[in-house]
Amino acid sequence: MNGTKAEVPTVRRDVVVIGGGPAGLAAAVAAKEAGCADVLLIERDRILGGILNQCIHDGFGLHTFKEALSGPEYAARFIDRFRELGIAAMEETIVLSLSADRVLEVSTRGTYQRIEAGAVILAMGCRERTRGAISIPGHRPSGVYTAGAAQNFMNLENIMVGKTVCILGSGDIGLIMARRMTLEGAKVEAVFEILPYSSGLPRNIQQCLNDYGIPLHLNTTVTDIVGKGRLEGIRVAQVGEDRLPIPETERYIPCDTLLLSVGLIPENELTRDAGVGMDPVTGGAVVDDSFMTSVPGIFACGNVLHVHDLVDWVSVEAAEAGKFAACFVREGSCALPSPIPVRPGSGVRYTLPQSVSGERDLTLSLRVSAPWRDRCVVVRDGGREIARKREMRLHPAEMIRIDLKKETVSGCSSLEVTVE
Question: Backbone phi, then psi, for 316, in 5-degree steps?
Fold first, then answer.
């Protein structure tokens, strides 16, 4: 690039949303509806919708629209509203950097500019954990894909990725791809999960595995990948309580395709660049009940904040972030100086938000650390119980939401959430 940085075009926008998936769309719509006239959405793909565009199965929108929609249908509802409101969008645009004073540097089709934002909403979503992240030994043949990459090839590019398939990890995308591969004529040998329980939703276990006779092997992992040019097979073994393979249980399974569904990682490089405080458990930002991060004027929502199991909750959460971002631009603040900390207790892996104001109604989101049946999720202020929710079934794959009234939270010194 020729010239000095001072010559780079600079524009001012009230609210900038980074990410055009379900979180970004809902946040932009909510900010506009909350009275912010100047909203800009930035998306690196050529179309809006994010991951929903390749999710052609149904089951979306049961809470938001009270009907089962496919991913593209769900996205279209928000895109239509987005267009009706006349919200500006920059597609095929990469955000190169984000500073703590809300200055973005972006590149669009070879052009470069700076954007000074009154408020920024982070909605970049997740990326998949890869083979390298879990250190599977063996050669590097073709035929090893993340489940999401295989879904993109099959649903958007009409490319069949293999004929004899094994799947490592029982995350929801892996389970859905087990069904998708079967429907397209492939033979899915089995799904292998290192944990003693599935990491996907129970409805997906039933609809994607049990209904098609696909076995699920728990406490089992892949120990070796065999093949040089093309995948020829894998070796799997059971694992002990320390999650290390038991050598005498190892066996070989021939296959030409291995799909990895071993977790999602929130896409938070820009978040860290801006100096935002991070939660080591969720992998996302630390936020209050307005979804504002530790950096004033920067908000986070959706899967970039914490991984969701239902897109409906992504949209609800993002709409709140959009509303509070508009409030920040209008009033200069939406948080209070004395937040009430929220922390996970026994049986709870994490809670979100990590602090609350006590001045507004809110919803606590949390995940439990292990499966249980017929237990209660309890919220306490010290030794005083302020909320209790009984669940017939608690599972780490399912996010729990607890609604709290401001009258309940006001005056509390701290909140702890436990399973009892």
Answer: -60, -45
209-221 burial, b at 16+ Cβ within 10 Å, e below that, comes to beeeebebeebbb
Q: Which amino acid is at 143?
A: G
Q: Could you tell me which residues are beta bridge partners of residue 226?
A: 233
Spell out the residues 6+ positions from residue 340 whose beta carbon is closer than 8 angstroms to its own: 355, 356, 357, 358, 409, 412, 413, 414, 415
Please give the model's pTM, rounded to 2 decimal places. 0.93
Q: Is the dihedral of CA 25, 31, 34, 35 positive or negative?
A: negative
* Axis-axis angle for helices 22-33, 71-84 (nearest 10): 30
Among residues 22, 264, 266, 28, the alpha carbon closest in space to that of 125 is found at: 266
* Digit-coded pLDDT (tens) for 212-233: 999 999 999 999 999 999 999 9
CB neighbours (10 Å) of residue 269? 11
Beta-strand (E) ranges in 348-383? 348-352, 355-356, 362-368, 372-381
Q: What count of Cα atoms within 13 Å lies in the side-chain half-sphere of residue 203? A: 6
How far apart, in Å, do the first and last CA atoms of the chain sit? 60
pLDDT in tens, 170-229: 989 999 999 999 999 999 999 999 999 998 888 899 999 999 999 999 999 999 999 999
CA proximity to 309, closest of 252, 264, 372: 264
Q: Which residues contact 169 (CB under 8 A, 6 or more apart)?
A: 147, 191, 192, 193, 194, 199, 260, 261, 262, 263
Q: Which domains does the chain have, with CATH numbers?
A: 7-128+264-335 (3.50.50.60), 130-262 (3.50.50.60), 336-420 (2.60.40)
Instruction: Tell me how crowded residue 46 is: count the other CB atoms within 10 A of its CB.
Output: 7
